[in-house]
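Entry:
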Amino acid sequence: MQDEVTPPAKDAAPTGTQTLLRGLAVIHAVAAGARDLKAIAQQIGTTRSTTHRLASALVEERYLRVLPQVGYLLGPKLIELGFQAREEVPLVMLATPWLDELSRLTGDTIHLGVRDGDEVLYLHKNPGRNGPEMRSRVGHRMPLARTGIGKALLLDATPQEWQRLYQISLPAAGHNPLWPNHPEQSWEQVFARMQTYVAGGYSFDLEDNEPSIRCVAAPIRDASRQIIAAISIASTVPYMPLEKMQQLIPLAQKAAAGISAELGGKA
């Protein structure tokens, strides 16, 4: 509350960096839930008159808005800048440092993918040092319901959507053509697994899509809390026992949360 004892002349005309920082502090206070001048002033430590001038300028420039019976809210200019910032920095560019770190820590193959219709579109791949090279590649597509990344992308989807995607992914005669002796899981089994994944915030590929390939995946969320991408840590069965998969869950989730934070998402 140092501002309360500042001489009036100085308090009346804050300039330069101090003004900029105070203006940003007002925006942060409103974002944190302050809805009137008193609450904003208490949070940022300024007088009511200074707070009023700062808030009025921010409203005029559309960084804040005022609604009757509600008070101050974040303004449309911030929405515009947020979308612009997201478009200017590609997802792959933001994610690459996190994916490289996962690759370094695990030695496994690391994927980044997004949903494109009923398929996963792979945007990035760090080849693994463990086991043979996987056939996945940037630009490759796989069924959502059969991959770890696909399941992570579907954690917020409805059971009806899960079932639709499960049904369209079923190979002829109930067997995977890449693995003729591997029986398909029933819808009931798939549904139970998805419920577990939703509760835990992760997903597994337990050789569902390709023989001997397993992976651990986690969703990436943007500022709207929507799932917009997912990452996975994948390897062959000898290098990916179930015990290791459980240990990799928090590692995948930490990287996904870091990428989410770069996109304005919150943990």
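The CA atoms of residues 228 and 263 lie 10 Å apart.
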